[in-house]
Specification:
Blueprint (H helix, E strand, L loop, with lengths): L1 E6 L3 H14 L3 E7 L2 H11 L3 E5 L1 E2 L2 E2 H7 L6 E6 L3 H10 L3 E3 L4 H17 L4 H15 L3 E5 L4 E5 L5 E5 L2 E5 L5 E4 L3 H9 L3 E5 L2 E4 L3 E5 L5 E4 L4 E3 L2 H13 L1
Helix pairs in contact: 1-5, 2-3, 4-6
Protein backbone atom coordinates (compact mmCIF):
# COMPACT_ATOMS: atom_id res chain seq x y z
CA UNK A 1 0.00 0.00 0.00
CA UNK A 2 1.39 3.40 -1.05
CA UNK A 3 1.08 6.04 1.67
CA UNK A 4 0.22 9.56 0.48
CA UNK A 5 -0.12 13.07 1.90
CA UNK A 6 -1.73 16.18 0.43
CA UNK A 7 -0.36 19.59 1.44
CA UNK A 8 -2.51 22.46 0.17
CA UNK A 9 -3.92 25.58 1.82
CA UNK A 10 -7.18 25.48 -0.17
CA UNK A 11 -9.80 23.30 1.54
CA UNK A 12 -11.63 22.73 -1.76
CA UNK A 13 -8.45 21.43 -3.42
CA UNK A 14 -7.76 19.10 -0.49
CA UNK A 15 -11.23 17.65 -0.89
CA UNK A 16 -11.06 17.28 -4.68
CA UNK A 17 -7.65 15.62 -4.70
CA UNK A 18 -8.62 13.35 -1.79
CA UNK A 19 -11.71 12.19 -3.67
CA UNK A 20 -9.79 11.60 -6.90
CA UNK A 21 -7.15 9.55 -5.09
CA UNK A 22 -9.82 7.44 -3.43
CA UNK A 23 -11.80 6.98 -6.66
CA UNK A 24 -8.99 6.12 -9.08
CA UNK A 25 -6.19 4.73 -6.88
CA UNK A 26 -7.48 2.24 -4.29
CA UNK A 27 -3.91 1.07 -3.63
CA UNK A 28 -2.96 4.58 -2.46
CA UNK A 29 -3.87 5.33 1.15
CA UNK A 30 -4.24 8.98 2.14
CA UNK A 31 -2.66 9.13 5.61
CA UNK A 32 -3.00 12.87 6.24
CA UNK A 33 -3.41 16.40 4.96
CA UNK A 34 -1.78 19.71 5.89
CA UNK A 35 -2.14 23.35 4.84
CA UNK A 36 1.22 25.02 5.55
CA UNK A 37 4.97 24.51 5.58
CA UNK A 38 4.96 24.02 9.36
CA UNK A 39 2.13 21.48 9.51
CA UNK A 40 3.37 19.82 6.32
CA UNK A 41 6.83 19.14 7.74
CA UNK A 42 5.32 17.84 10.99
CA UNK A 43 3.05 15.47 9.04
CA UNK A 44 5.86 14.23 6.78
CA UNK A 45 8.07 13.47 9.79
CA UNK A 46 5.19 11.66 11.50
CA UNK A 47 3.84 9.63 8.58
CA UNK A 48 6.94 8.92 6.43
CA UNK A 49 4.93 8.97 3.16
CA UNK A 50 5.76 7.44 -0.23
CA UNK A 51 3.97 10.18 -2.17
CA UNK A 52 3.27 13.88 -1.44
CA UNK A 53 0.90 16.06 -3.44
CA UNK A 54 2.37 19.46 -2.71
CA UNK A 55 0.89 22.88 -3.43
CA UNK A 56 3.48 25.41 -4.59
CA UNK A 57 1.81 28.39 -2.90
CA UNK A 58 1.13 27.82 0.78
CA UNK A 59 -0.09 30.23 3.44
CA UNK A 60 3.38 30.60 4.99
CA UNK A 61 5.62 30.22 1.94
CA UNK A 62 6.14 27.83 -0.97
CA UNK A 63 6.26 24.08 -1.44
CA UNK A 64 9.85 24.51 -2.58
CA UNK A 65 10.73 26.07 0.77
CA UNK A 66 9.11 23.13 2.54
CA UNK A 67 11.31 20.66 0.66
CA UNK A 68 14.41 22.72 1.40
CA UNK A 69 13.68 22.51 5.13
CA UNK A 70 13.77 18.71 5.04
CA UNK A 71 17.28 17.26 5.60
CA UNK A 72 16.53 14.33 3.26
CA UNK A 73 13.49 12.48 1.99
CA UNK A 74 12.58 9.41 -0.05
CA UNK A 75 9.03 10.24 -1.12
CA UNK A 76 7.99 11.25 -4.63
CA UNK A 77 6.46 14.69 -5.20
CA UNK A 78 3.64 15.75 -7.51
CA UNK A 79 3.28 19.53 -7.42
CA UNK A 80 -0.06 21.34 -7.41
CA UNK A 81 -0.11 24.82 -8.89
CA UNK A 82 -2.32 27.55 -10.29
CA UNK A 83 -1.41 29.92 -13.12
CA UNK A 84 2.16 30.53 -11.98
CA UNK A 85 4.22 30.94 -15.14
CA UNK A 86 7.60 30.92 -13.38
CA UNK A 87 6.79 27.81 -11.34
CA UNK A 88 5.38 25.85 -14.28
CA UNK A 89 8.37 26.72 -16.44
CA UNK A 90 10.70 25.53 -13.66
CA UNK A 91 8.72 22.30 -13.18
CA UNK A 92 8.77 21.50 -16.91
CA UNK A 93 12.51 22.20 -17.04
CA UNK A 94 13.10 19.53 -14.40
CA UNK A 95 10.64 16.99 -15.93
CA UNK A 96 8.67 16.57 -12.70
CA UNK A 97 4.92 15.97 -12.73
CA UNK A 98 2.42 18.57 -11.66
CA UNK A 99 -1.33 19.05 -11.34
CA UNK A 100 -2.72 22.33 -12.62
CA UNK A 101 -5.61 24.03 -10.85
CA UNK A 102 -8.49 23.65 -11.60
CA UNK A 103 -7.92 19.90 -11.63
CA UNK A 104 -8.45 17.92 -14.83
CA UNK A 105 -9.26 14.30 -13.90
CA UNK A 106 -7.34 12.77 -16.80
CA UNK A 107 -4.20 14.82 -16.11
CA UNK A 108 -4.52 14.00 -12.40
CA UNK A 109 -4.63 10.27 -13.12
CA UNK A 110 -1.65 10.49 -15.47
CA UNK A 111 0.49 12.42 -12.98
CA UNK A 112 -0.29 10.08 -10.07
CA UNK A 113 0.21 6.95 -12.21
CA UNK A 114 3.67 8.14 -13.27
CA UNK A 115 4.55 8.85 -9.63
CA UNK A 116 3.39 5.36 -8.61
CA UNK A 117 5.62 3.82 -11.28
CA UNK A 118 8.61 5.78 -9.93
CA UNK A 119 7.81 4.57 -6.41
CA UNK A 120 7.59 0.95 -7.53
CA UNK A 121 10.89 1.23 -9.42
CA UNK A 122 12.43 2.95 -6.37
CA UNK A 123 13.90 5.66 -8.58
CA UNK A 124 15.69 8.52 -6.88
CA UNK A 125 14.05 11.76 -8.05
CA UNK A 126 15.63 14.10 -5.51
CA UNK A 127 18.22 15.33 -8.07
CA UNK A 128 15.31 16.37 -10.31
CA UNK A 129 13.76 18.29 -7.43
CA UNK A 130 17.09 20.02 -6.76
CA UNK A 131 17.23 21.07 -10.43
CA UNK A 132 13.66 22.33 -10.09
CA UNK A 133 14.40 24.45 -7.02
CA UNK A 134 17.54 25.93 -8.62
CA UNK A 135 15.60 26.69 -11.81
CA UNK A 136 12.77 28.32 -9.86
CA UNK A 137 15.24 30.48 -7.92
CA UNK A 138 16.79 31.70 -11.16
CA UNK A 139 13.38 32.48 -12.66
CA UNK A 140 12.33 34.38 -9.56
CA UNK A 141 15.50 36.40 -9.18
CA UNK A 142 14.39 39.96 -8.73
CA UNK A 143 14.31 41.96 -11.94
CA UNK A 144 14.00 45.69 -11.47
CA UNK A 145 12.04 48.40 -13.21
CA UNK A 146 12.41 52.14 -12.66
CA UNK A 147 9.17 54.13 -12.66
CA UNK A 148 9.59 57.89 -12.93
CA UNK A 149 6.92 60.15 -11.50
CA UNK A 150 6.85 63.94 -11.29
CA UNK A 151 8.61 63.94 -7.92
CA UNK A 152 10.35 60.58 -7.53
CA UNK A 153 12.08 57.57 -9.09
CA UNK A 154 10.61 54.29 -7.88
CA UNK A 155 12.80 51.18 -8.18
CA UNK A 156 10.43 48.22 -8.06
CA UNK A 157 10.63 44.44 -8.49
CA UNK A 158 8.80 43.37 -11.66
CA UNK A 159 7.39 40.31 -9.89
CA UNK A 160 5.62 42.63 -7.39
CA UNK A 161 3.49 44.26 -10.11
CA UNK A 162 -0.05 42.83 -10.06
CA UNK A 163 -1.36 44.68 -13.11
CA UNK A 164 -1.15 47.94 -15.06
CA UNK A 165 -4.05 50.09 -16.18
CA UNK A 166 -4.06 52.57 -19.05
CA UNK A 167 -5.43 56.09 -18.80
CA UNK A 168 -4.76 57.60 -22.23
CA UNK A 169 -1.08 58.59 -22.17
CA UNK A 170 -0.67 57.60 -18.50
CA UNK A 171 -0.23 54.17 -16.87
CA UNK A 172 -1.03 53.20 -13.31
CA UNK A 173 0.90 50.30 -11.76
CA UNK A 174 -0.93 48.34 -9.05
CA UNK A 175 0.80 46.44 -6.25
CA UNK A 176 -0.07 44.57 -3.05
CA UNK A 177 -2.45 46.37 -0.70
CA UNK A 178 -3.81 48.56 -3.50
CA UNK A 179 -0.57 50.55 -3.61
CA UNK A 180 -0.25 52.27 -6.97
CA UNK A 181 2.14 54.42 -8.97
CA UNK A 182 1.07 56.68 -11.84
CA UNK A 183 3.58 57.38 -14.61
CA UNK A 184 3.33 59.56 -17.70
CA UNK A 185 3.93 56.80 -20.27
CA UNK A 186 1.41 54.80 -22.26
CA UNK A 187 0.61 51.16 -21.56
CA UNK A 188 2.00 50.25 -24.97
CA UNK A 189 5.43 51.45 -23.83
CA UNK A 190 5.43 48.79 -21.10
CA UNK A 191 3.71 45.94 -22.94
CA UNK A 192 6.75 44.86 -24.96
CA UNK A 193 9.08 45.39 -22.01
CA UNK A 194 7.08 43.25 -19.59
CA UNK A 195 5.76 40.52 -21.91
CA UNK A 196 8.92 38.43 -21.48
CA UNK A 197 8.35 38.45 -17.70
CA UNK A 198 4.94 36.78 -17.80
CA UNK A 199 2.65 39.75 -18.54
CA UNK A 200 -0.35 39.56 -20.86
CA UNK A 201 -2.67 42.24 -22.26
CA UNK A 202 -6.23 40.86 -21.95
CA UNK A 203 -7.86 44.18 -22.76
CA UNK A 204 -6.75 47.42 -24.40
CA UNK A 205 -6.73 49.11 -20.99
CA UNK A 206 -4.96 46.43 -18.94
CA UNK A 207 -1.68 44.54 -18.70
CA UNK A 208 -1.68 41.72 -16.11
CA UNK A 209 1.00 39.66 -14.40
CA UNK A 210 0.10 36.00 -15.06
CA UNK A 211 1.72 35.05 -11.75
CA UNK A 212 -0.93 37.03 -9.86
CA UNK A 213 -3.93 35.47 -11.63
CA UNK A 214 -6.16 33.33 -9.42
CA UNK A 215 -8.96 32.45 -11.84
CA UNK A 216 -10.21 33.07 -15.37
CA UNK A 217 -14.00 33.27 -15.55
CA UNK A 218 -15.29 32.64 -19.07
CA UNK A 219 -18.94 33.48 -18.37
CA UNK A 220 -20.55 36.50 -20.04
CA UNK A 221 -17.77 38.42 -21.80
CA UNK A 222 -15.11 36.91 -19.56
CA UNK A 223 -12.86 38.39 -16.88
CA UNK A 224 -9.80 37.63 -14.79
CA UNK A 225 -9.87 37.42 -11.00
CA UNK A 226 -6.52 38.39 -9.52
CA UNK A 227 -5.13 37.00 -6.26
CA UNK A 228 -5.91 40.36 -4.63
CA UNK A 229 -9.57 39.83 -5.75
CA UNK A 230 -9.46 42.59 -8.37
CA UNK A 231 -11.44 41.82 -11.53
CA UNK A 232 -9.87 42.54 -14.93
CA UNK A 233 -11.97 42.51 -18.12
CA UNK A 234 -10.95 40.31 -21.05
CA UNK A 235 -11.87 41.25 -24.60
CA UNK A 236 -13.61 38.65 -26.76
CA UNK A 237 -10.62 38.53 -29.10
CA UNK A 238 -8.12 38.05 -26.30
CA UNK A 239 -10.01 35.39 -24.33
CA UNK A 240 -8.94 32.61 -26.71
CA UNK A 241 -5.34 33.90 -26.68
CA UNK A 242 -5.36 33.95 -22.88
CA UNK A 243 -6.75 30.42 -22.59
CA UNK A 244 -4.24 29.13 -25.15
CA UNK A 245 -1.42 30.84 -23.30
CA UNK A 246 -2.38 29.35 -19.94
CA UNK A 247 -2.84 25.91 -21.53
CA UNK A 248 0.70 26.11 -22.90
CA UNK A 249 2.35 26.91 -19.57
Amino acid sequence: MIRALIIDDEAAMLQVNSQLLSEYFPDVKLVGTANSIKTGIELINKQDPDLVLLDIELSDGTGFQLLQKLPAYNFKVVFITGFDAFAIKAIKFSAIDYILKPVNETEFQQAIQRAIQLIKRKENTQPQVNVLIDSFKKEMQSKKLVLRTSNAMHVIDICDIHFCKSDNSYTTFYFEGNEKILVSKSLKDYEALLSEYGFFRPHQSYLVNLNHIKKVDKTDHGFIIMKNKKEIPVSTRQMKNLVDLLDSL
